[in-house]
Amino acid sequence: MAKCDYCGSSIWFGGVTAGNYRFCNANCQRNGYQLIASNLVSEESLMQQVRLIHQGTCPRCNGPGPVDVHLSYRVWSILLMTSWNSRPHVCCRPCGRKEQIQDFVFSLFLGWWGFPWGLIMTPVQLIQNLSAMASGPDGSRPSDTLRRLIQIHIGANSVAQQNHSGLARGDDLRLDLELTFQEAIFGCEKEVQIMHLERDGAGGTVQVARALKIEVPAGVDSGTRLRVAGEGDAGANNGESGDLYLYLLAPTEADGWKREDINILSDLKITKAQGQNGDQVTVNTIHGEAILTIPPGTTSGDQLTLKGKGVPKLGYPNQKGDHIVRILL
Predict the structure, then answer these.
(1) Contact 182, 68 (CB under 8 A)
(2) The pTM is what?
């Protein structure tokens, strides 16, 4: 089933298509035009904003979070006219549930009076409200929907700043940055050399070489993009400078380890006696040596897990993946 590229709700019927994007209604389409600009938002700055909002106070009641996106669903109809939509609410769980209850009651009384769609969509919207009230986003981490809305909001602000007062924003620059296996996992400080345009003091620009120190966060991978604000080319007519985007490249294998997302995989060869009787052995992990317990009856191809011995999660360095050991006899 298709989902709205702006609010993330399911599209049962209809919807609005614009290029490669699909939206549940015209309002989401208008907001969704910021998607293109939002794709330039760096992962690091985006996750800082997401965590700040998710862990902050509710913008509606000023109560404690977590704050996330809570969807409510409504429908109204009269004779041959029926209208239904989903509404995202960035708020705490109690405020979100209040909106869902209100839209449930609204749809219950005003949804049935159109033929045929009122009779079809009213139970659909009522069930979706009940489901949303019963479940809701996982409070332990921000939802993908919240992340997407904040990304679009940042993109919209970026577009507005570019168009302010007719000033010409400078070009963004791209640089590929190679990391080692360990640097990508644990983060590091790297120095890069760039060439960009700076203002020359006489209203023009001049190309200048600069050395920049870049803080690479833990948990990055090949394809991760970092944004360094203001380090692109200077804008014309005193417009703001563009940004520098660093595209990271890192190997996925090293020293007998293989990285898959935030998990580390490795092989361990043991004897038949160790497999039959069980044993405790020392395994080299990216965090140092760890004791692995081999239970009796272990056979070749079995996988044993060392919890929390994997890669730090990008944006959440205290959360780590696992080290998965494949047994070979």
Answers:
(1) no
(2) 0.51
